[in-house]
Amino acid sequence: MFCAFFAAFCVVVPFGQLAKAESLCSGSTERYIVRMERASEWFDEVKGIVISEGMSPLWLYLMLSESGGNKNAESKHGAVGPWQLTSLIAKSFGCDDRTDPVKSTMAALKYIKKLDKDFKGDLRKVIQAYNMGGTNLRRIGKPTKEAKALADLVICLFELDPLDLK
Predict the structure, then answer these.
(1) In contact, 118 and 137? CB cutoff 8 Å
(2) How many CB atoms lie within 10 A of CB 58?
(3) What whole-number distance in Å separates Cα of residue 73 and Cα of residue 79?
(4) Does residue 62 contact residue 127 with C-beta atoms inside 8 Å?
(5) Which residues are within 8 A (CB) of 2 and not within 5 positions of it... i.e. 6 or more apart?
């Protein structure tokens, strides 16, 4: 087992999974630079909000992974904006415009804090629940392949930090 430290989190990752995650994200530097450039008009403001809220820059990698840095992104499931919020989550956390980087960031961070409490600080589960919904993760009892891969990718990206966000 390997304990990787991310800001205030310690994530226990079996060596095999860590190697797999690193191979997933080792070639991501250029892709994530493009995503950050796509978000260049508002990325620094969002980063400032994340930091001022006492949150880890890890969450910026989640945002860039979810939307590709496109504030108008829309998923096949109806999630919209830079943080890919559903209308229900956005409304629940006070966001009336999911494409607004500031409003959606505030809502996403509130949601992440709630998930962090709900999943007792288990970073991997928080990321998985963010992707697939906390209720879905609890109901199904295990993450989807997509949610599992997203957690591996985000944690690896944060560890490698190709955007120098730490």
Answers:
(1) no
(2) 22
(3) 8
(4) yes
(5) 12, 13, 14, 15, 18
Read off the DSSP letter of residue 9. Answer: E
| Structural contact between residues 8 and 56, judged by C-beta atoms closer than 8 angstroms | yes
Assigned token pair, 159: 């560890």
Map tokens 């943080």 to a residue.
83
| CB count in 10 Å sphere of residue 105 | 26
Backbone angles phi, psi at 82, to 5 degrees: -60, -30
Amino acid at 145: K
* Alpha carbon distance 40, 89 (integer Å): 25
22 neighbors 160 (Cβ within 8 angstroms): yes
**Segment 27-63, tens digit of pLDDT:** 677 888 899 999 999 999 999 999 999 999 999 999 9
Structure tokens at 93: 């956390």
Look up the pTM and report it.
Answer: 0.85
Q: Is 12 helix (H, G, I), strand (E, B) or coil?
A: strand
